[in-house]
Amino acid sequence: MSIVPVKDIVIVGGGTAGWMTAAAFSKLMGNACRIRLVDLRSKQEIREYLGNIESVIQKCVDLMPTHEQYIAQHCSSKARE
Q: What is the DSSP letter of 75?
């Protein structure tokens, strides 16, 4: 069996996950393949969305607990007597 390199990637859905996936593939793959993102919004709507994406991501990050908070909340154990 031979390995065939990927030449085209199509991402369907232009929500936050779609745009972030396209950005990650673009960064990782460079010019090695063509990346297409299918989004039903108009060019103007996409420009507005991308203009706000940084603040959207920051709001998501702000809502997430720190690693220490998560460990304290979900991984604590009670001392055995």
A: S
